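Reading a protein record of the kind used here takes only a little practice. To see the layout at work, look at the sequence and tokens printed below.
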Amino acid sequence: MIKTIIKRDGTKEDFSAAKLNKWAEWAGSNLGEYVDWSGVVLQTVSTLGVACTSKQLQERLIRVCLDNDSWSYYKMAGRLLAATLNKTIFPKGKPTIKNLHKSLAKKDLMVKLNYSDSEYSQLESVIDHDKDYDCVYFGLDFINGKYAIKDRSRGVVYETAQFTYMRMAMALAEGEKDQVKEATEWYKLFSDNIINAPTPNYVNLGTSLKGFASCCVYTTEDSWKSLAVGDHIAYAMTCMSAGIGSHTKTRSLGDPVRGGAIKHLGKLPYYKAKQGAVQANMQAGRGGACTEYYTCYDPEILDLLQLRNPRQVEDKKVRGLHYNMGSNKLFARAVALDEEVYTFSYADAPDLYEALYSGDQSVFEALYEKYKNDSKVKKTWYKARDILSVSLTEAYETGTAYLHFPDEMNRHTPFKDKIYSSNLCVETCFSTKGYKTMQELYSETFLYSEDGLGEQEPEIGLCSLAAINVANVKTDAQYAKAAYYALKMIDKCIELSEFAFPHLNLTAKARRNAGVGIVGLAHHMAKSKKLYSTQEGKDEIHRVAERHSYHVINASLRLGKELGNAPWMARTKWPDGWLPIDTYNKNVDGVVTVGLQYDWEALRAAIVENKGIRNSCLLNMMPAESSSKASQTTNSVYPIRDYTLIKTDASVTTQWAAPDGEKLKKWYEIAWDIPTKDMIDVYAIIQKFTDQSISADFYRKLIGEETVTTQEMIKDYLYMVKMGMKTRYYQNTKTSNGTELDVEESGCAGGVCTL
């Protein structure tokens, strides 16, 4: 039994049970039947010695709450943690925003923000530190461990959560006509967990670090100079904390080089060089990460499919990258009919290769038929099912053998230029073009034309993200505001960014690519008492996805009117009145019973009148694995995998719980219990309204004697094609009770996408 408490200043006092009870009762208030605060007290005092420090007592109270493993106990732990952090970070009392910023600027941990004393004073009345006491434990703990400004060498933290939100808000609002008003709007949207900011924004806003892009996407041309530029891009963008999506356009093993003087060694040497480039530097305690994209028609396909397989022979392993196989409807048809396809090299049929990346697949099919009997084109014939079964088996065994569908990526898109690949986490779909020389990459002027008309510039696709927590948005007016400020945050970060290459600075600002996604869908569904796998649930997801798309597009139109359209708007279909509802896969109509709820035609007319919008692209569904923890919600559009989980990345391990898990337990549908067909329906519904793509995860239980058959895998693949999916991300597998193959691999943006 505790008798003596040693306070932080070293003084001792008699232990007071009444004081401890009062403390625990306060921490458990408003949590009702789901928390027994007196039980927490009894467990705490029974495990401590006769004398203990006040810090040990507080930490033990928190630990007991966490050991009870539920949302409500995590809420109690969050309140206790908030009090502890206030005492630890600010032992002499909480400073004003101005004094904290002044102190951090002296330490070179912040830049001096251009706010007057009067403006600081006004914002002092806006910041609400009591909001920290309403946070769940994992939200506060994650912000404290990963996002708050700190001296990482000494482990000294300088911000609590509300200070972090205010720093971000003020950095974004700096230079606005009414800085206080804009900072207030951003602060409230962040602190009320409505806008979900990405990791780079949390960490870098208000500091001297100006890297805000989460991922970059690039392609190379078939020359040694262009391939070298590609490796340089991968190396430099890893240093800038971005994840990499790479498409290497080059000939294949045995192809002639320099008229046959040299025999080409294939793609593996280039992949190994890229692996070294992305892993040479650290991102938040880990090496960088890259997903490499290739096609099912590649002559090296069977080797490429097994580069991560531990059973592959050593000289054919490149395990430091992730891989994504592209296929199209011709291949899918061959799979369905159990027919053969032939592989071909880029060197032999560059026009056929380029036709694969076209929204009109009739061009590809005509050329494919033409080259079928052309003896000048080297071919190897394979059963399409054999190629696919290797790919799908790899996905089940390693989790990270992804899929993309280049014909659908180039059909259902606002871009007029070719899309060769997606990004690390497979949710972006940007136009890219390879740099031929290093000089082009470092050019400080446009190589062809500033307005983007005419020949396409070489281009890296840059990914700037935000998301809206759909579980916390109550009205259309609130959604419109959230969409506007989420997109404006991206716009400001594009302007604030320091780019790795001069030419990237030009193209990123000319395109103004954005990705506004969704988090908290599982929580929203549970609150709405609807399940992913039911008709009512799919109809609700249709409503959610439509509302999201409509308001984000409308926000870009508003920003276009205020700030001007993207300079390269003419390279997109927006000025022609294109909307995602024009080109979606019509098979989606067969899995929903609801129609459109917003006035899309009025929006179309307004976009045409304005000759476009602020951004070349707008919508993608990123994993948001890290940032959703700070927002205290469920990540992306995924169902939950369990009511409580241990989530980890390179720097923070957190005990996560489904929001309101006890109260809504009946209505949370567990991912492992949802048939793959229903998840494909869900992703297809969301894809209908999404101009880019989705980090679409699948979940399969393989417990005991249960196995997944080749027939089942092929059936799922064909249904993905039928429903118009653009990409497929992780194939998660639960192999026994409590054991998951969730592939804890490197994610993008300092762990944003790590599972």
